[in-house]
Amino acid sequence: MGTFFKDDDFEYMMLGALGATYHKCADVGECLTTAASIEDGDYEGWYRAWLATADRVRRFAEQSAAKGHQTSAREAFLRASLTYYKNAAFFLDGTSDPSRILPTFKAHRECFDEAASRFDPPVEKVQIPYEDTTLPGYLFKVDGSGRSRPLLLLNNGSDSDAADMYLMGAAAALERGYNALAYDGPGQGAALFLQDLYFRPDWEEVVTPVVDFALGRPEVDPKRIAIMGVSQAGYWVPRAVAFEHRIAAAIADPGVFDVSTSWTDHLPQDIQELLEKGEKEEFDKNMKEGMRSSESLRYTLRFRMRPYGTDSPYEAFKMAEQYTLEGVAEKIRCPMLVADPENEQFWPGQSHRVYEALTSPKELVPFAAAEGADSHCEPKAHSLREQRIFDWLDETLG
C-alpha cells in the first residue's frame, strides 16, 4: 500500500482521516488537498494546513445552517470537528506554541455540539456525577420514544475525547439499535482541558459512576449494558469490568495489559537503567535535553505527560507503570472481545496477553493487513471493525 508521508505519525493520522470518511466525518478530496500542502515531518505546517481546512469547512457549515440546510450543516460541522480540528491540534506540542491546543480543542467541541444538535433525535449533552464534580458526555439515542434499549458505553483512550467516539462506536451502535453513551474520564478531552482532571489507574472508580448514571435513564435496559474501550482504554475497560459487574459485555480494541511498555520500549539502555534505579534528577535532565534537540521527542513527551498531570518525565514514566492488568484480568466475569490488529504499533502482542489472562468467556478477533484492517484501532477498516465487534455484541447480549 502506498504512503502519503514517511513520518509514521503523520501517516497514521492521514489514514485515520481517510477512514473517517466512512461515517461522513471527513471527505476524501479535503483530506488529499490538505495533505498535499504539508511537508513531511513539519509540525507547524501540519497545524496550519488542517486548521485552514477546518476553518473553511466550518464556514460552509455555518452558511448552510443560516439558510436552514440542517443536513448539510450537520455533515460539515462533523468533518470540521472530528477530523480537521482534531488533526490540527494533534502535533502542536512539537511546535513553538503549544498553547494553541486549547482554542483548537474548543473549536473541535463547538463544531461537534453544533452537529449533535442537528441529529434526529438530537444528541444529548450530559453531565455525569463523579466525586465532587461531573464528567461531560454525550448520550446518543436511536429515537425519541424513550424505549428501553441495550446501551453501549464508549470509553476513549489517551489522546481522544467523547466526541471522537461518535466515529469509533456511536454511529455503528445507532445503526444497530443500540443507544450509546460517550464520556470524558479524568485526563481525557474536556475533563482534562477544561477541568484539570488527570488519569488514574483504578478506572472502575470512573466507570461505576457512569453505570450509576446510565441506570437512572429510562432508555437503558439494565441487563444489556456493554462497554467498549479504544486505544489506551484497552487497559481501562478490562480494569473497570474486573470490579464493576453490572456490565454484561466488554470490548478492548486493542487489548492493553501493560500501558508502560509503549513508553519504556523505546528508551536507550542507559536511560532505562536510570529509571529502574530511581535516578529521578538525572533521568529528567537527560530527557529534557533530548526534548530541546528533538522536535519529535518534545512533541511526544509533552503530549503524553499532560494527562498524567506532571511535567516530570520520570514521574510520568513511573505513573504509567501502575497501569497494568497483572492480578486483575482474572477477576473479570463478563464476556470480552479483544481486537488483535496486525502491525499494532503501540502495544504489540498485548492483545494476546490480555486474552490469555482472561478466565471469563472470551474471543480474540484478528484484523489483518491483507484485509486493509491492520494498525492501531483499525483506522482504514471501519466497516469490517464494526461488523466483527457488533455481530459479537449482538450474539453476546441476545
Describe this structure in words.
The protein is an alpha/beta fold and 398 residues long. It has 3 domains: 8-116, acylaminoacyl peptidase (de novo design (two linked rop proteins), Up-down Bundle); 124-259 and 323-397, Rossmann fold (3-Layer(aba) Sandwich), CATH 3.40.50; 261-320, no CATH class. The chain has 16 helices and 8 strands. Strands 1-2-4-3-5-6-7-8 form an 8-stranded mixed beta sheet, with helices on both faces. Strand 3 (149-155), helix 6 and strand 4 (179-183) form a beta-alpha-beta unit. The model has no long low-confidence stretch (mean pLDDT 97).
Summarize the model shown:
The chain has 398 residues and is an alpha/beta fold.
Question: What are its keywords?
Answer:
alpha/beta, globular, Rossmann fold, 398 residues
The radius of gyration over CA amounts to: 20 Å
What is the N-to-C succession of helices and strands?
HHHHHEEEHEHHEHEHHHHHEHEH
Order of strands, main sheet, comes to 1-2-4-3-5-6-7-8
Nearest-integer average pLDDT: 97
Find the structural class using helix and strand composition.
alpha/beta
Task: Write down the oligomeric state.
Answer: single chain
End-to-end distance:
39 Å
Secondary-structure arrangement, i.e. CATH architecture of the largest domain: 3-Layer(aba) Sandwich
Q: Could you tell me the strand content as a percent range?
A: 5-15%
* Largest β sheet strand count, sense and barrel closure: 8 strands, mixed
Helix content: 40-55%
What's the level 1 CATH class of the largest domain? Alpha Beta
**CATH structural fold name of the largest domain:** Rossmann fold
| Total of DSSP H or I helical runs spanning 4+ residues | 16
